Amino acid sequence: MKTITAPLAFAGLLAAGAAHAQDKVTYQLDWLPGGDKAPIYVCITEGFCADAGLDVSIEPGRGSSEAITKIATGTSDIGSAGIGALMAAKATEGVPVTAVMNIFNMGPHAFYTTADTGITSITDVAGKTIATSPFTSSNVFLPLVLGDNGMSEDDITLTKADPGALGPMLMTGQADAIIAWLTDVSRYTGQAEEAGKEIVILPWADAGLELYSASLVANDTFLAERPDVAKRFIAAFTQSLEFAHENPEAAAAAVASVVPELSAEDVMGSWLDASKLAFNEVTEEYGLGAFDADRLAATWDRVAASQGLDPEALDPESVVDRSFMGE
């Protein structure tokens, strides 16, 4: 069993980084700031980035596709994005972006429902009204998870609504279930408690949709021209990810200190939910941040199937470079 701690080599990189001038790095989020983004804020506020000789600025995003575009054009150097979106962009556009570390080794997609609906398994959503956001990447995988369970989209009534409306729709019975991410367990659990209901969560990973999701992805020119900076950043990010896992209150405070419109309490709930996607049995088997070849290939198979792409259009190994993690 592999350790989930950062390789010892990273400690040397961090120490060496302190002697460097502060190298500027622009980090690209794949969405707005929140608890699931805690590690990068920890890296800045706890000094892990500075100790590595890095001056890191953060850019917000509006989805993985936008994040990949900004990184591909050099607007940002490195950041978070769904590896499925990167695979699709590589296959169709050949974007100069490479995944250098996994952040979430499980997909975040799930159905949320309440106990009073009688929905206790994914097959129970047949004949039900399901609400989803029009922008979530979960919609791409919905036909697959339904197909894996003997259904199609014709077997449900799918309605699209603003993300902020999904919880109220579920709690008031306007939807029998909603599609949301596992990073929002605390939020929807709280809404259910306020409505006097019990939340039921059906992760799609438990129904056969096993894949990598959020990853660190970087501009190819950045990796080629500043490989030492990239290695020091990944080392610092890894240290920050572990710190956040071990110190969720401090991680939440780090985000709230930079993004004051977010409360530390809400951030911590979101981070505790998200951290389960980074620290789990897959992590114990393969190591923190690692890309297992078989799981990577399975991820591409699912991405290709979900988007109607030729499976032969991409070698999934061409999407990743493990060397920056010291593997």
UniProtKB/TrEMBL annotation:
One of the GO biological process terms: thiamine biosynthetic process
Location of the SsuA/THI5-like domain: 38-251
One Pfam entry name: NMT1
Leader sequence segment: 1-21
Keywords: Signal
Domain of life: Bacteria
InterPro entries: NMT1/THI5, SsuA/THI5
SUPFAM superfamilies named among the record's database cross-references: Periplasmic binding protein-like II
Protein name: SsuA/THI5-like domain-containing protein
Native source species: Marinibacterium profundimaris
